[in-house]
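Predict structure. Input: Glycosyltransferase involved in cell wall bisynthesis, 363 residues.
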Amino acid sequence: MANWIQVVQHLKPGGIELMALDLLADDPEQGWILALEGDRDSAIAHWPQLAPLASRLLFLDKAPGWQPGLVPRLMQLMRDLQIEAVHTHHIGPLLYAGVAARLAGVPKRLHTEHDAWHLQQPRRRRLEQLAVALAQPTLVADADAVAQGLRQALGRQASPLYVIKNGVDTDRFCPGSSRVAREALGLPQQVPLIGCAGRLEWEKGQDQLVAALVMLPPDVHLALAGSGSQQAALARQCAQLGVAQRVHLMGNLAQMPQFYKALDLYCAPSRREGLSLSILEAQACGIAAVVTDVGASAEALCRRSGALVPSEDVSALAMALNRQLNFGLDQQPRQFVELQGNLRQTRAAYAALRRNTQEVPVC
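Output follows.
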């Protein structure tokens, strides 16, 4: 196998970063992940999950703003490591590493877009068009909805375009004992428990879920896994609405399968989203989901067991949550994930593109 490198903006807990780690774990002896921002020690301190792969992680500690000097640094790094395939995730890495890879003569350049909402902004759309023209990568979308957004933004530049949907490790994310999981996490046992995992940011919409909790029976509790800039605001909202005792702010968790197993129902109340790994992870653990109809969330949802609701409609969200808690369909969402969102399929498809085979159909 040839040496290859993935390039991300940073290595903080998030869907893009988790997918990059999952892809690297399939081929750690030949692969690296390079983060434009940050340094190794700080990244591992904030995200211990990185530690087992520390020797394969590289950091440029990029300063804020446009840094054209990074391009020659990346070119030299790729030559030193004898890189034959570069895989960029999102627009910043494409601008730097995609261009560097082409200038360095790296024969295989892949670029994955994980959401398309940002391409509706004229400046971001022009940047994407410029980066694609300069780097000339093989384009990949992680969902059908993202592929549609790329075609609208890039026109002829988005041909050919491959769709490789995100996948999760169904051996790691599997059903288990709710009682054991709640005991380990310090969560109450005899209550209906809704969970949500993700960065605590406006676009993830946890504030909508807290508002919906007020409309649910008083014994229903909510567990939020993750951290972010909205953590203090969410705590204030819980206090103001009188639900602070029913909301459990868990922070970043190392054992996410344990979190999902503790739940009765999963909710992704996002305002913006790509194809969410957390929806797939929860369903792989046998937990049905209620998600807002944004981005590619509908593609991650088992429609036989879960529910899709409009974003910014708290009443509809509360009604769907209550209905699922009381009358959830007797359908297991795990089978959907095994067929539609399995990490083995995702890894195989990306490996096929790196090998220049024709195993991945063009969208």
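The first helix runs from residue 15 to 25.
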